[in-house]
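Could you please consider the sequence and fold following this short note?
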Amino acid sequence: MLAILLALSPAATAATTIDEEEVYTLPQGEILDDDLYVFAREIRIEGTVTGDVVAFGQLVTVPGEVRGDLIAGAQAVRVDGRIGDDLRAAGQAVQVSPGATVADHVVSAGYSVQVAEGAEVLGDAALAGYQVAVDGAVGGTLDAAAGAVRLAGHFGDGVSVEVGPSNQAPYSYAGEPPPEIAMPTVQPGLTVTDGARFDGPMRYRSPDPGRISQAAQFASPPAYTPDVDEPEAGAPQASPLGAMVGGFFRQVVAMGIVNTLLSVIAAGWLERVTGRLRADLARSGLRGLVAFFLGGVGLGLIPVVTIALAVMLGFAGIGPLVGATLGLGLLGVVAVAVGLGVGLALVGPAVTGLVALDALIEKAGAKPLTGAVRGLVAGVLIGALTGLPFVGGLIGVLAGFLGLGAIVARGPVRAAP
């Protein structure tokens, strides 16, 4: 997080940033020779973007070409054209449509993730969700984790699948359907169809062997590993990748809620605290570290002092105050522990996320966000960073110390850009 804030120097190249309330369309035939950051309800890339695209909205569709990476978050993400590098997408439904091509890797998570028949992923694919359908071609390795997985395409390298049991009733989605995407129906467990072809090894882990067609073509017999723990009937199936993805989304949702609430109910206080952090990042981080250390010392001293005082009151014959003293001491321990935990894990990162978002928007030259929208986007940003596997914890601690230091500080305030 500190690296993100410090790296946004004047020497950095600003991408093209679009902040629309409703619809953004890059028309067919138009070429944008730049990276593109776009925030709108509906986003359509019909033309060509020579750099990367970062898109957040309700619907993201790419019938055109993105020659760099496409990083998208929306209720529905659909690629109908060509992605020249990686596709990283999350949403209720993510689809690489018939005829579409992703020239490198795909990393995607959602309720429904599909590589449709006629679509092609030239690199590796890592897919997770409730259901995953790979009916097209994956040139590299495929890693999939879901309650329901269908493999019907051509797989050029190894396939590794973690999937739930096949003896459960299909789940009927009762929520609002995603716009412009018809989600496939995938049977629970593993399904390998007649037309599937595996040029590399195929391994899968599941409570049962699933449904594997005898007509499917395998370079070697599939390697099946039964789940060692028998699941309860109807219990959701956990997998390492699924748990990782679930933890990531829980972190994003939690920080989004925290930032939005703070932006609504404590806007003035939040502006003062973020102003202190903008004024001096280094000192804020140091103050946060000192505050955490002193809080830990306090957690150790409060019980000792409380017990000593209670003993003294007992010897003095003031019995009624002994219970009150012990109760106040317990409340003090709880207050310090909760304060440190909330400050370091929630409020501190929320403050740092707002400052990081403001810096990103300022560098991109975009219109500043305000109010609850600013809080929500900042929460999603810091939640995504702190929810990253392996490094998210370190980012969260650093963001927590920075924000905690700004909370306890009394000093100059720098206004938001």
Q: What stands out?
A: The CA atoms of residues 12 and 88 lie 23 Å apart. The chain has two domains: 2-238, 245-408.
